[in-house]
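Hi there. Long-time user, first ticket. I'm pasting a complex I've been working with (about 678 residues overall). I'd like to know whether the download I got is complete or cut off, because the file seemed smaller than I expected. Thanks.
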Amino acid sequence: MDSAAIVALLTAAVVVGTPLLYAAMGELLTERSGILNLGVEGMMLVGAVLGFMITVNTGNYWYGILAAMFGGGMMAAIHAFISVTLRGNQVVSGLALTIFGTGVSGFMGKPYQGVNISMPFDIINIPVLSKIPVLGPVFFSHNILVYASILIALVLWYILYRTRWGLTIRSVGENPAAADAVGISVSRVRYLCTITGGILAGLAGAYLSLAYAPSWQENMTAGRGWIAVALVIFALWNPLRAILGSYLFGGVEALTFRLQATGVTISPFFLSMFPYILTVLVLVIVTIRLRQEAGAPTALATPYDREER
Amino acid sequence: MKRRKIAVVVLAVMMLTVFAVGCGNSQQDSDGKTENADKAKVGFIFIGAPGDAGWTYSHDQARQYLESQVPEVTTTYRENVPEGADAEANINQLVQEGCKVIFANSFGYGDAVLEVAAKHPEVVFMHASGVKTEENVGTFFGRIYQPRYLSGMIAGKMTQSNTLGYVAAYPIPEVVRGINAFTLGAQAVNPDVKVKVVWTTTWFDPTKEKEAAKTLIEQGCDVIAQHQDTYAPQQAAQEAGVYSIGYHSDMSKFAPDACLTSVVWNWNEYYVKTVKSVLDGTWKNEPYWGGMEDGIVGLAPISDKVPADVKQMVKDKEQAIKDGSFKIFAGPIKAQDGTLKVPEGKVMTDEEMLNFDWFVAGVEGQLNK
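Hi, the file is complete. Here it is re-exported in full:
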């Protein structure tokens, strides 16, 4: 591969990795507060379909983006209600959310299959920065949603590690009883984080249906929600690592086609399996490493009940 | 605690119910149930949804045409029917509802069709892209490789880089045949042309198909053809300012500047003919593989970007295909590695074409077996 091809690959890694980044950040925030939400795929699909529907009907993709955020947030609210208020099993509720989201998005989106929106997000070249060789085209020549995702990741990192809010969120995820004792409302923090996580998952879906491949197809997320869940573990619950991980996974997906086009003799079936193999590998490696260093929020997936302290 | 558990269960059931409503394949009657009692009912089992602008869309267009052309017929259909046990249940339902003819539009429905057909000899079953006929089961398909050859001619004339791209779904004979025909068509007008192939291993995943098309464009392809069910490759071509060739239905509305033409299915007349023959008792269970001469496959209107002399050339070739004076897979044809696969004076048989497992020279891509 020549240098132009490598720049093209890296650019594609960012473009393909962006929906993963949105979804992974949402899940990361949710898990930091101690809630495991396996409904990312479902929330993404609802975000994708709502974003597309509203954009078609209003002709303004910003309304579509808002609708996608609203849809993702509402889905997450269901999960928050079950896991926080009812203290139900978070795994079951999350899985139900994915199944529900898949079904309801397919149902709502039926009349929108094959509908055309010819108004993609414009590529915005950032002055000066986009002229830098390699880094310019890879990071500074994208649509606004790509920039927003990087910005949100940086802000999320700052909030989690440098502010009082972040401390609150992390303490709720690590030791809700202690947080409760110092007067933090565990339920409120968990509700807020879960719903914000859903909003980000909705954005991930809208990126797919509005910016990346403007169209609606049933099940168009094609497992990206699950990759995002694995990415959070890969990132060791750190937003900066999530950026890296998303682009790595995006790069692997982008690479599969480029390997084919450059004439490497690997079965296409094997190549399309690649991101998933990587997911499994990452999970294995991280799980082994986790024995040595703390990673997951201690109270992850454990309902908090004041009376059971 | 108990109350809480019950609440969780109730919520879960609620969600699953909505899911069932959402995902369950919906049934649609074309018009009210009244006054249709004396009409012959025709049923359809669709693998996708009619709105997909692709394969199922083309079948649904024909269903509507059938209804408008044959007044003594009423139709009903099931969409998004998965292959396997669900297919059998849905076909059975259509039989219970009194359908006289049932069309099934996916290869994977084969077993289900044969199973139900054996129990209901009074019903005629038509299996698209199927391979096995029975007393009451017919199979039908179109020679889509013919218009693909013509679209290859257009691509071969319009390319500047002499590199064409092909976003392909799976390495199966149907797709390989199309790629080969496209390549031969392009080479017929431009001997220097080569065709790069990328497999997506999916029929409809817009993001993957778009990424695959973008890859091909990066590699210097300036006309993108596709054997996929979404229009994402067309969007990629439109955004990059290169040309494209659509598939299934006229895709020019999705990529007005890029789309030169589309390779399309048109089942209209075939459906009408088949249903009429069932009604008047002349139907036979022959396997049908129709070409451009029957109008079952064809080219969508060609873009004005294509010069008039190229259009004329395509038109002449189309005529030659229709009257049988030109055969696409006639020797000499060399394979990718240069071996002579079809010698001078020989024409590939249908049998050979249905088992295509090699690329013609000029295709750049892998066929892993």
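A couple of notes from our side: Chain A touches chain B through 56 residues (CB under 8 Å). The radius of gyration of chain A is 19 Å.
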